[in-house]
Design goal:
The protein has helices at residues 23-34, 77-82, 129-139, 143-162, 173-184, 187-194, 197-204, 208-216, 232-241, 256-269, 314-320, 352-355, 366-377, 402-406, 429-443, 469-476, 527-541, and strands at 16-19, 39-43, 54-56, 64-66, 89-90, 94-102, 105-112, 251-252, 273-276, 279-285, 290-296, 299-305, 307-310, 333-340, 359-362, 387-390, 410-417, 464-467, 511-513, 553-554, 557-558. The protein is of the alpha/beta class and 560 residues long. Among the domains are: 16-52 and 257-329 and 481-558, FAD/NAD(P)-binding domain; 141-245, no CATH class. 54% of the residues are buried.
Length: 560
């Protein structure tokens, strides 16, 4: 970035440019448009949505899979209300099932879904007798189930305390500690914020599989372990359990494409201009005016603008500003998308419609997770490879055509852990082996291998797609394939200078970060996009603000 940039423009001017048309950029654009600003969204790909898209991946198979992201928890209802989104999020009928082999016998821990008035009534088996009996049968007492209920009752109290703060300017560490102490008791802060997560898990639970299931929320997409001194596992855990004051992860009806689709329609209604196939190449700014250069098939263009909101990873932002790209943590996940003719049967005897209805935990015992982490850190592909599986169609059949639904097709999404990009070879050989190990982890609990259930596409190929961090980097411009755009941060100010800000600063006054790399970023939330807009509002309030064409709420308050 030059100190005195020269602005050139090809007859294009706008009030705000949003770089990147993923869900956070779409949230920011729709809000800005409702404020009456002229907004242009530049999207590198040929379509909008980023990671929140749905695709018919397999020729001749009419199933629209959520290709990258798949569940929603952190998207605040205030954003849905403010932008008048036509979006439905539905509770899964089961929380989780963890198949295990004990003494040569197939069994499993079953956790039903508790009705929760804040989300509406839930269907399916409740959390009572069935769940308690499975814990009792496998552990020999009621202790683990009681501890489970107490542990998650505590995290729900933390969720109710922290979730509202995500919609306000960043609070300080001391205020966050006070909120959590009042909601959860004096020990919570030490256990979940100051000490490695493994310590409270080991002190609370005795069973290796139960401990592992609890730990997984700290490892999704994060290369870490129970006693990591960086506490990145603690940060990841908090985000996984605080969404909307309960931590429940819900299914978007119509698939992830319904999330981005509703945001696109909100932006169109607000007058936002979308330009796809437009890759931003340079941002220049003097702090008050900026110029964004971008290329399309037609050539290079420039936009003069007052504000630039960047929905891209921090290293990408650095390159656009002409700064040396900062180092960020790589991603650590494997994703396998599948379509099956039928759900495979479990050796434990639990009906497949219940086993696959929530989160299916595979090879995620506490000791197995530690072994997998150690193997991956040594450059070895974990064996067995810990993973989780979700079946979208048991909650939402609208992603299938009527004919596909009548055939009994289902979609399965497998998410593997401890698979950083360094493990994968460019020729795809490691990818194939990773998929084999992931499916082997499932097959050991089945009466029939899942491969025998895979639907064949129009070319006679099995319906299975594998995506590694290398693929995410290439397709979505996520450095290292990190789905969070880098390490997560605590959901409060990291230092005193951040207190009272929105956590979107870039060091350039009118260039703001509105993507997952901002404070309180990561996952499908829209919070960084909204936060960047409120930073713009603060600046506009120092000038003459344009007419507000729609409601925008700030936490529990209405913006003035």
């Amino acid at each position: 970035m030059t100190n005195s940039p020269s602005f050139t423009v090809d007859q294009h001017t706008t009030d705000a440019v949003v770089v990147g048309g993923g869900h956070n950029g779409l949230v920011a654009a729709a809000y800005l448009g409702r404020l009456g600003l002229r907004v242009t969204v530049l999207e590198r790909q040929g379509r909008l949505g980023g990671a929140t898209v749905s695709d018919q991946l397999f020729p001749g198979v009419e199933a629209n899979l959520s290709r990258y992201s798949y569940l929603v928890s952190l998207l605040p209802y205030s954003i849905v209300r403010d932008l008048e989104l036509d979006l439905e999020l539905r509770s899964r009928p089961v929380a989780s099932y963890t198949p295990v082999l004990r003494g040569g016998r197939a069994d499993g821990f079953f956790v039903g879904r508790a009705p929760d008035l804040s989300f509406g009534p839930a269907s399916g088996p409740g959390p009572g007798p069935v769940s308690a009996e499975s814990f009792r049968r496998l552990t020999g007492s009621d202790r683990e189930w009681q501890r489970w209920q107490e542990f998650y009752a505590l995290t729900e109290k933390a969720a109710r305390a922290l979730a509202p703060t995500l919609l306000d300017p960043l609070i300080g560490r001391g205020q966050a500690q006070k909120l959590l102490r009042e909601a959860c008791g004096s020990k919570f802060w030490e256990d979940f914020v100051e000490r490695p997560l493994g310590e409270v898990i080991e002190r609370t639970f005795a069973d290796d599989d139960v401990r592992g299931v609890v730990l997984t929320d700290g490892l999704i997409g994060t290369q870490s372990h129970a006693h990591d001194s960086t506490l990145r596992q603690n940060q990841c855990f908090l985000y996984h359990v605080i969404g909307n004051g309960s931590g429940e992860w819900r299914v978007p009806i119509g698939g992830m494409g319904a999330v981005s689709g509703s945001l696109i329609r909100a932006g169109q209604k607000a007058g936002v201009q979308f330009v796809c196939g437009a890759e931003a190449t340079r941002i220049e700014s003097d702090g008050r005016q900026a110029s964004v250069s971008y290329t399309t098939e037609q050539g290079t263009f420039h936009l003069n603008t007052r504000y630039v909101l960047v929905n891209a990873a921090p290293p990408v932002l650095d390159r656009l500003l002409g700064r040396p790209p900062r180092a960020t943590a790589p991603g650590s996940q494997l994703k396998i998308n599948m379509v099956v003719d039928r759900l495979p049967r479990f050796r434990s005897g639990l009906p497949s419609e219940q086993a696959f209805a929530g989160t299916l935990h595979l090879g995620e015992s506490y000791s197995a997770l530690q072994t997998a982490y150690q193997q991956s850190e040594r450059g070895k592909l974990p064996d067995p490879l810990p993973s989780e599986i979700y079946c979208h169609t048991l909650t939402d059949k609208t992603i299938l055509s009527p004919a596909a639904a009548a055939r009994g097709l289902h979609t399965l999404t497998l998410f593997g852990l401890h698979t950083p990009p360094s493990l994968f070879a460019a020729d795809g050989s490691t990818t194939q082996e990773a998929a084999r190990r992931a499916l082997a982890g499932l097959n050991q609990h089945l009466e029939e291998p899942v491969e025998s259930c895979l639907t064949m596409d129009a070319n006679g190929e099995p319906c299975m797609e594998v995506r590694t961090p290398l693929d995410l980097e290439a397709e979505l411009a996520m450095p290292g394939g990190n789905i969070f755009h880098g390490d997560l941060t605590w959901p409060w100010a990291e230092n005193s200078a951040q207190i009272g800000t929105w956590g979107v600063d870039t060091g350039v006054a009118n260039v703001l970060l509105c993507g997952a790399g901002a404070a309180r970023g990561g996952a499908v939330s829209g919070i960084p996009g909204r936060s960047a807009v409120f930073a713009v509002i603060q600046d506009l309030q120092r000038r003459k603000p344009p007419r507000n064409r729609g409601p925008i709420s700030s936490g529990r308050r209405q913006a003035r």
